Amino acid sequence: MKLTREEQWMLEGKLGNGTAFAMKLITKLGDAMGAERMIKPVGSHVVSFGFQMYGKLAQWNQDLDNEMLEGVREFKVPATTNPKFINTEDEKFIERFGLSESAVGKIRQSMSNKKFEALGALPTYTCTPFFVTQTRLGESLAGAESVAVVMYNSIYGARVNRETAPTALATAITGRTPEFGMHKPENRYAQLQVDLGEDIKPEEFSRADYSALGYYTGRIARDRNVVFTGLPRDLSVSMLKTLLAPLGVSGAVMLAHVVGVTPEAPTVEAALLGRKPEERITVGKKELREVYDRLTTASEDKADIAVFGCPHAPLDEIIEIARALDGKKLRDDASLLIATAEPIKVLADRMGITDMVERSGGLIVSDMCPHGFLSPVYVTGDIKLRQSIKTIATDCTKCAHYRGAQGVKIKYASARDCIRAVM
Ligand code: F3S
After folding, report:
1. Which ligand 1 atom is nearest residue 127's CA?
2. Residue 370: CB within 6 Å of ligand 1?
3. Residue 316's CB: how many other CB atoms inside 10 A?
4. Residue 212 half-sphere exposure toward CB, CA atoms < 13 A
5. To 5 degrees, how large is the angle CA 277–CA 149–CA 225?
């Protein structure tokens, strides 16, 4: 790669060891991906390495963190932050799930968030940073959260590659990212065209249906760009988040054009950049059913917990759930969790929606991943807690996919059916 004099200085360690490490990392990435130069992105979405808390992996994370931040005084571009593993300040949540003091202490210690904040990171703690910061068409970003990547590329026309936590952090440190992949307009054309079958009406879709459509498409697309035709042009950004997030879960899609909605796709021809799609599929009732069947592993109707907000729920989604609860009480042995970003939670508090949810026995949590704490991979060490939650009901394919893969029984259903499962 051709580096500017300033970039060369960074590489040589003139701005400190951490910056040199970060520059080396993204230069190697750029070389491997055939980039010719670095560009200056407008921001980076960083992820704390502290999700792994035990064993060699945890030590490796801490070491890498320390090595990259050595001598760094501030981030060079605005950095938004992904959710914490657990919001250790949320006493209601900790009490409700009976998390032990030692588990909470360990989590607090292992997270990098305080170090990131000291360098100027924005304490957004959400996987939906696009709901709390603004981005324009054609701007480049770096980032490590697949939801943020697909949304920035597809809905805002910003340019970002699917990255790792270390490379996103390296961009925050250096203010540079290698120019390849999604940063280049010629790589942004759709390869897979997805048409909707005549037997489905997207106007009547629940969130779970939209999420299933994204999940089905991701499996076929793998890492190719997608164009959806036939979706309503007035689809809300909130519903677009639900549709697009799973593309990075069942596949590794970074960009999905929605004709008439996304800035680079006023028409299907524009999304295809005048080419023919490599593949064209039709998704109908049968394909959506396949997703429900694949993700649902629970045989009973009842669940121990209903989980919403993966990715984090915007206000309209929280209101939908609060209305569906309709003042009804959850079973004493069941829970309901809605995860969101803190600014949205503040609005929900002010509007009395948080109270409505709590009166039914549910909780709205912010700044954290709603189900990471149950995962045996991101262990809290709280085996009792994990054993008490054997079945999760959710309308989020991302939640169903990851928790299901770790052996928890899943009921994949609409929000209303998930609520019924904990009543
Ligand atoms: Fe966000 Fe956690 Fe789901 S980070 S996308 S809520 S897995």
Report:
1. 1
2. yes
3. 12
4. 27
5. 5
The model carries a pTM of 0.94
Q: Give the model confidence (pLDDT) of 322-368 as tens digits.
A: 999 988 999 999 999 999 999 999 999 999 999 999 999 999 999 99
Taking every pair of Cα atoms in the chain, the longest distance, rounded to a whole number of angstroms, is: 64
* Cβ-proximal residues to 399 (8 Å cutoff; 6+ apart), any chain: 307, 310, 370, 371, 392
Distance 147 CA to ligand 1 centre (A): 8
Q: Is 79 helix (H, G, I), strand (E, B) or coil?
A: strand
261 CA to middle of ligand 1, Å? 24
The closest-lying atom of ligand 1 relative to the alpha carbon of residue 339 is 6
Work out which ligand 1 atom sits closest to the CA atom of 396: 3
Site to substitute for ligand 1 among 162, 312, 397, most atoms within 8 A of C-beta? 312
φ/ψ (deg, to 5) at 392: -115, 135
List the one residue out of 386, 248, 388 whose CA is nearest residue 310. 248
**Atom of ligand 1 minimally distant from the CA of 146:** 5
Task: Give the CA dihedral 116, 121, 127, 131, nearest 10 degrees.
Answer: 170
Q: Is 303 in the pocket of ligand 1 (CB under 6 A)?
A: no
pLDDT tens digits, residue range 239-289? 999 999 999 999 999 999 999 999 999 999 999 999 999 999 999 999 999
Is the C-beta atom of 398 inside 6 A of ligand 1? Answer: yes
Q: How far is CA 25 from CA 3, 180, 199, in A?
A: 14, 15, 49
Residue 398 C-alpha from the chain's centroid = 9
| Alpha-carbon gap, residue 327 to 216, rounded angstroms | 34
Q: Which two tokens stand for residue 49?
A: 């390495």
Q: Which helix (H) or strand (E) holds 364?
A: strand 363-366
